[in-house]
Design a protein that fits this description.
The complex is a heterodimer of chains A (189) and B (803). By secondary structure, chain A is an alpha+beta fold. Chain A has three helices and ten strands; from the N terminus they run H-E-E-E-E-E-H-E-E-E-E-H-E. Chain B is mainly beta. Chain B has eight helices and 44 strands. The longest helix of chain B is centred in the first third of the chain and has 14 residues. The radius of gyration of chain B is 29 Å and the shape is globular. The chains are: A alpha+beta (189), B mainly beta (803). At the A-B interface, helix 1, helix 2, strand 6, strand 9 and strand 10 of A face helix 5, strand 23, strand 24, strand 25 and strand 26 of B.
Chain lengths: 189, 803
C-alpha cells in the first residue's frame, strides 16, 4: 500500500529530526552559567555583648556553620548587665551587612525576646534601646539582672511581625521567628 | 452495514402509506458519491421532506425520485455512516442533483483513543465526562473542584483557591492535563501549584483513570484529564454565552463570556474571557485573612474547519493572584507548634479585597497551532505545535521592603510538537500512530535573592506511540497501545559545598561538578531515562444489561525536576525540602475493572482497581536541621514500593421521570510496602448523596446533596518532639503534623430555573447554598488544615445567558 510507505517515511524523518535536534544541543556552553545567588536577608551571626561596671565586657558570637556548643555566657548574680544584641550577614566576609539597622528601621515589625531555662534572670529595656512607634521597647539594648546562681540556657529570639509587642513567653508575641538560638549560661554568686 | 440499511428501508417502507402523493410528473435524479474518493455511495436514502416520496441509491450511487409536484421542496440525503445533507430546491423542470457525502470521519477523530471501549459502549465507568452544563455549573470554581464530584477524584488543596486534582490517590506529575490535544506544562510538581487552566474556555472534559491515554503520554498512572472544545459547524452563525456568578462568602464573583462566529465556508473565530475576584473568605467562626483571589483569562481562536482538512490557531492567557492564609506563614517549628495548639488562626484581620504577601502570581500563556487532513482511504493526519510560557512568582513575608520582590520567580517555556496518523482500516480494526517531541527550558530568576527552589534546566522528550482497536461487534471490543519515551534532563545547579559532601554526591556524582565558588559549587547534572508504557484491555456485555471491562496499564515516569533538585524552605509547614539525585524512574502496573448498568430505573457503576508502583517517589521527613532560626524538619525525596487498591461506586435510582436519588462513594488503600507504612495524603473514604426533583414541565429543578468524608485512619506517623521553654524549664512537646481531621458532613443545595422563553437560545438562573449548616470542619487534603477550618456557608446566584 502506497500510503503506508509514505507514513513510514514521514515518521522516520520526523523521528530522526527530533533525535538529532535533541542530541545537537548536548554540548556545554562553558560561559553560559546561571548567576550565583548569595542569599539576601540572611542572618549568619548573632552578637551578644554583656557590660557591667566591674567586669570586663563579654562578647558571644553565635555563627551559622560553626560549632557553637562551647560558647558560654558567664554572669554574676545580683549584678546589672547592659546587654546588646546585633544581627549580621557575614555571607560575604568582605561585605558584612548589619541587619540590626533594618530591625531599627522597622522597629514596629520586630521584637527581641529572651527566655531562660533553669536560671532566673529578669530584664528590662536598656540605655539606647530602640522604641517603636507605640512606645514599646524592642530590647536591642536591655538591662539584665540574675537573682541567684545556677546554670541553664538562654534563648534569644528575633520575632518578625509579632501579633503582640508585649508578653512573657515566645507564644504570646505571635509572629514569625527570624532568629532562635540557644546559648548556655552560668550565673556565679 | 448493508443489512442495517435494508432493515432501515423496510421499516421506512412499512410506515409509508402512500408513495404516490399527487399526480405530479416532475423528477429529480443524481449521483451520490464519497467526498474523499468519489466512489459511489450505495443504499443512501434520498427523500423529499414532509412527503413519503423517496429513492434509494443503487450500486452506481444513483437515485431517481419521480412524481414530484412543481414548487419548492426540501431534498434530504441520509446514510447511516455519513452526515446527512439537505438542499432546498425550486422544481420547475426535471433536475439532476449530485451530492458528495462525508463519512463520519469527523466524529471518529473526536473519539480519543482512551481506555478502549469507553467511547463505544459506555462512558461512565472508566471515562467520566463533563459537558457544557457541568462546566457552566462550576464556572466560578477550579478544574479540580469541578472534577471532584466524580467518584475516585478528590482535590489536594492549599487554602480555598488553590486545588489540584487527585485521581486514584495520585496527583501532580502522576496526572496529565491535556488541553487541545497537548499536555499542559505548568510546573505541576508543587503541591501548592494549581493547574493554570480556565475551565470556561472548554466545552468538554474527559477524565480517564489510569495511564490509558497513551497518545498524550505514558507517565500518568493516576489518570488523564482531557479538555476539548466542540467542532465548529459549517454554517453562518454568530452565537455566544455569558455566565455571571455572585457569591456571598468572599463577597466576590466571576463573569465569563464567549462569542463565536462561524462561516459556512469553514472559517471561524472565537473570543472568550473570564474575570474573577474574591476577597477574604470566611470560615464559620472567623475570617481567613489574606485568602483573596483575582483572575483574568483570555482565549482567542481562529480556524478553518473544512471536512477534508482544517487548521486552528489559539492564543490563551491565564493570569491570577492568590493570597495565602497569612497565619500559615511561620518562622520555625516552635511557631508551628503554637499554630497547632491554637483553635483558630493566629492572625485574623478585618475583611479586605487586598492581597498581600504571602501570595502567588501566575501567568500562563499558550500559543497553539493544529492542522488536520483526512486521506482518501479513511486516514487522518494531525499535526500540532504548541508553545507554553509559564511564569510563577511567589511572594513571602520578607524584611526590609523585600516583600515586593518574589522569593520564587520561575519562567518555564515549553515547545511541543506532535504528529499522528489515525487509520480506520476496516470497520473492525483501527490504528493510530504518532510521534511527539518536547523541549523545555526552565529559568529561575536570580534577582529573588533567595536560593533557587528549582534550578535552571533544559529538558527534551521524544516519544512515539502505536495504538490499535478491534471491535468484533457491539458486545466485544479489544484495545491496546504501546508508547516509548526518551527523557533527557540537564540542569545547572548550585549546591552548598557542605551539602554536596554530606550527601556523598562529591563521590557518586563528581562528573557533574563544574566550578567551585567557595561555599557553593556549580554542578551540571544530566540524566536520561527511557520509559516504556503500554495498555491493553477488553470490554464485553454480561447478559443484556451489564457492561464490563478489564484493562491492564503499564506506565513509567521519569522523576520530575522537583523530585531531583528541589532545594528550599516551605514557610507553610516550616520544612526544608531537598530533592534527590539518586532517584530513578518509577514503574506502575495497574489493573482496572468496571461493571456498568446503563439501562432501567436503577443504573450505576462499580470500578475496582489495584496498582503496584515500583520505585514510588515520595517525600519523607529525615531529621531536624538546626539553623539560626531554630530547628526545621528536613524532608527529602526518596523511593519505595507502593501498593494501592480502591473502589469507586456510583448508583442512581430513578423513582419516576421527575425524581431521582444518586449516591457515589470511593475508598482507597495505599501502603508503602518497603517501610510497611501508609502513604501520606490519600483521600479518606468519602461519599455523596443527591436527591434531585424536576418539575413536570422541566422548568425548574431542585437538588439537595450531602457529602460525607470520613477520618483518614491510615497515615504515616511523621510526628517528632521539640523542646521549648515553658515556665522556666525546657519541656518536650509533640509536634503533631500527622494526625488527621475528624470526619465531616456538608449539605449543599441547588435550585435551577430554566428560562427558555427569556432569550431565543435559553437562559438559566440558579441559586446555590453551600455548606447550609455552616459546618466547621477541617480537610485532610488541605495543607492549611493545621491553621484554619474550611470555608463556611455561602450563598450564590448564577445567571447563564445563551445568545
Amino acid at each position: 500500500m502506497k500510503l503506508f510507505l509514505n507514513i513510514k517515511q514521514i515518521f522516520f524523518y520526523l523521528f530522526t529530526a527530533l533525535l538529532i535536534s535533541s542530541c545537537s544541543s548536548d554540548e556545554d556552553e562553558v560561559d553560559d552559567i546561571p548567576e550565583l545567588i548569595n542569599e539576601e536577608e540572611v542572618i549568619t551571626t548573632v552578637v551578644l555583648t554583656f557590660d557591667s561596671s566591674d567586669n570586663p565586657t563579654q562578647t558571644i558570637r553565635w555563627v551559622v556553620e560553626e560549632d557553637n556548643s562551647s560558647k558560654l555566657i558567664n554572669l554574676k548574680a545580683n549584678t546589672e548587665y547592659q546587654v546588646g544584641i546585633s544581627f549580621l550577614d557575614e555571607t560575604d566576609p568582605s561585605d558584612v551587612e548589619d541587619i540590626t539597622e533594618e530591625v531599627i528601621e522597622e522597629a514596629d515589625d520586630h521584637q527581641v525576646f529572651y527566655d531562660f531555662s533553669d536560671v532566673s534572670v529578669s530584664y528590662s529595656s536598656g540605655t539606647n534601646d530602640t522604641i517603636d512607634s507605640d512606645g514599646n521597647p524592642v530590647y536591642l539594648n536591655s538591662l539584665w539582672t540574675a537573682s541567684s546562681s545556677g546554670s541553664g540556657i538562654v534563648q534569644a529570639f528575633l520575632i518578625h511581625e509579632p501579633t503582640s509587642k508585649t508578653g512573657t513567653s515566645r507564644d504570646s508575641f505571635g509572629g514569625e521567628t527570624d532568629v532562635a538560638i540557644d546559648i548556655p549560661i552560668t550565673i556565679a554568686d | 452495514m448493508t443489512r442495517y440499511l435494508i432493515v432501515l428501508s423496510i421499516i421506512y417502507l412499512s410506515f409509508s402509506t402512500n408513495l404516490y402523493s399527487q399526480s405530479c410528473n416532475l423528477s429529480v435524479s443524481g449521483k451520490i458519491t464519497d467526498l474523499h474518493d468519489e466512489s459511489p455511495i450505495i443504499g443512501a436514502l434520498v427523500f423529499i421532506e414532509g412527503t413519503n416520496n423517496f429513492s434509494q441509491t443503487d450500486e452506481n450511487g444513483e437515485y431517481l425520485i419521480e412524481e414530484i409536484c412543481s414548487g419548492p421542496i426540501q431534498l434530504k440525503v441520509e446514510h447511516p455512516s455519513c452526515n446527512s445533507v439537505e438542499k432546498k430546491l425550486d422544481i420547475k423542470k426535471e433536475k439532476i442533483i449530485n451530492f458528495k457525502l462525508e463519512h463520519h470521519i469527523n466524529e471518529l477523530e473526536e473519539i480519543i483513543v482512551t481506555d478502549f471501549i469507553q467511547n463505544q459502549i459506555n462512558s461512565s465507568s472508566k471515562e467520566s465526562r463533563l459537558g457544557i452544563d457541568e462546566i457552566n455549573l462550576y464556572s466560578s470554581e477550579s478544574l479540580a473542584e469541578a472534577l471532584s464530584f466524580i467518584p475516585g477524584v478528590s482535590s489536594l488543596k492549599t487554602g480555598n483557591s488553590i486545588s489540584k486534582p487527585i485521581i486514584h490517590g495520585m496527583y501532580g506529575s502522576r496526572i496529565g492535563i491535556v488541553a487541545n490535544g497537548i499536555r499542559q506544562n505548568d510546573q505541576e510538581w508543587g503541591a501548592d501549584h494549581a493547574p493554570n487552566i480556565d475551565l470556561n474556555s472548554f466545552e468538554n472534559v474527559q477524565l480517564i483513570k489510569g495511564a490509558a491515554a497513551l497518545k498524550y503520554g505514558g507517565d500518568t498512572p493516576g489518570g488523564t484529564i482531557i479538555l476539548t472544545s466542540n467542532k465548529k459547524k459549517l454554517i453562518d452563525s454568530l452565537y455566544g454565552s455569558t455566565i455571571l456568578n455572585l457569591e456571598s462568602n468572599g463577597s466576590g464573583g466571576s463573569i465569563s463570556s464567549k462569542l463565536t462566529k462561524t462561516i459556512s465556508n469553514g472559517y471561524y473565530a472565537e473570543g472568550q474571557f473570564s474575570l474573577k475576584q474574591f476577597g477574604d473568605i470566611k470560615a464559620p467562626k472567623y475570617i481567613l485573612s489574606n485568602t483573596g483571589l483575582k483572575e483574568f483569562d483570555l482565549t482567542i481562536k481562529l480556524g478553518k474547519n473544512k471536512i477534508i482538512s482544517g487548521w486552528e490557531a489559539i492564543y490563551s492567557r491565564f493570569t491570577n493572584e492568590i493570597g495565602i492564609l497569612r497565619a500559615a506563614h511561620i518562622g520555625n517549628v516552635q511557631d508551628l507548634l503554637s499554630a497547632l495548639s491554637s483553635e483558630k488562626p493566629l492572625r485574623i484581620n478585618p475583611f479586605t479585597y487586598n492581597i498581600s504577601s504571602p501570595k502567588q502570581q501566575v501567568e500562563h500563556q499558550n500559543l497553539h497551532f493544529s492542522y488536520f487532513k483526512n486521506q482518501k482511504d479513511k486516514g487522518r493526519w494531525e499535526l500540532k505545535y504548541n508553545y507554553q510560557i509559564n511564569q510563577r512568582q511567589e511572594f513571602d513575608i520578607r524584611r526590609g521592603d523585600r516583600s515586593d520582590i518574589p522569593a520564587i520567580d520561575i519562567l518555564l517555556k515549553t515547545h511541543n510538537l506532535a504528529a499522528s496518523f489515525f487509520w480506520e482500516k476496516t470497520l473492525r480494526w483501527d490504528f493510530e500512530l504518532g510521534v511527539s517531541g518536547l523541549y523545555q527550558d526552565n529559568f529561575s530568576d536570580p534577582r529573588t535573592g533567595v536560593k533557587r527552589l528549582i534550578p535552571d534546566y533544559f529538558k527534551y522528550e521524544i516519544g512515539s506511540f502505536f495504538l490499535g482497536k478491534y471491535k468484533l461487534n457491539n458486545l466485544f471490543s479489544w484495545d491496546w497501545g504501546i508508547r516509548v519515551d526518551r527523557v533527557f534532563i540537564e540542569a545547572q545547579k548550585y549546591y552548598m559545598n557542605s551539602f554536596w559532601l554530606e550527601r556523598g554526591y562529591s563521590e557518586s556524582f563528581s562528573v557533574f561538578e563544574r566550578r567551585n565558588f567557595g561555599s557553593q559549587i556549580l554542578t551540571n547534572p544530566k540524566f536520561s531515562y527511557l520509559n516504556f508504557s503500554s495498555h491493553t484491555g477488553f470490554s464485553t456485555l454480561i447478559g443484556n444489561e451489564i457492561e464490563s471491562s478489564l484493562s491492564y496499564i503499564l506506565s513509567q515516569r521519569a522523576p520530575n525536576s522537583s523530585e531531583l533538585f528541589s532545594d528550599g524552605l516551605h514557610h507553610s509547614l516550616a520544612t526544608i525540602e531537598y530533592g534527590n539525585l539518586s532517584l530513578s524512574k518509577e514503574t506502575t502496573h495497574k489493573l482496572l475493572m468496571s461493571f456498568t448498568k446503563l439501562k432501567g430505573s436503577f443504573t450505576g457503576s462499580l470500578e475496582p482497581y489495584v496498582a503496584k508502583t515500583l520505585n514510588y517517589i515520595f517525600i519523607e521527613p529525615k531529621q531536624l536541621e538546626q539553623t539560626i532560626r531554630g530547628a526545621f524538619p528536613v524532608w527529602e525525596y526518596d523511593a519505595t514500593d507502593a501498593f494501592l487498591w480502591g473502589i469507586d461506586l456510583n448508583a442512581k435510582i430513578d423513582f419516576n421521570n421527575q425524581f431521582y436519588f444518586q449516591t457515589t462513594a470511593s475508598y482507597i488503600y495505599a501502603q508503602d510496602t518497603l517501610n510497611e507504612s501508609p502513604i501520606i495524603s490519600i483521600p479518606p473514604f468519602n461519599s455523596t448523596q443527591r436527591l434531585n426533583y424536576s418539575s413536570q414541565n422541566k422548568k425548574w429543578d431542585f437538588q439537595l446533596s450531602h457529602h460525607y468524608v470520613s477520618k483518614q485512619n491510615r497515615f504515616p506517623d511523621n510526628n517528632f518532639n521539640y523542646s521549648v521553654i515553658e515556665n522556666g524549664t525546657f519541656q518536650s512537646k509533640l509536634v503533631d503534623i500527622s494526625s488527621t481531621p475528624e470526619p465531616y458532613h456538608k449539605l449543599d443545595l441547588i435550585f435551577s430555573l430554566y428560562l427558555n422563553e427569556f432569550t431565543k437560545s435559553g437562559a438559566q438562573l440558579r441559586f446555590f447554598v453551600q455548606n447550609i449548616t455552616n459546618s466547621d470542619y477541617r480537610n485532610y487534603l488541605n495543607r492549611m488544615r493545621y491553621y484554619a477550618s474550611e470555608i463556611g456557608r455561602s450563598f450564590q446566584i448564577q445567571l447563564i445567558l445563551n445568545y
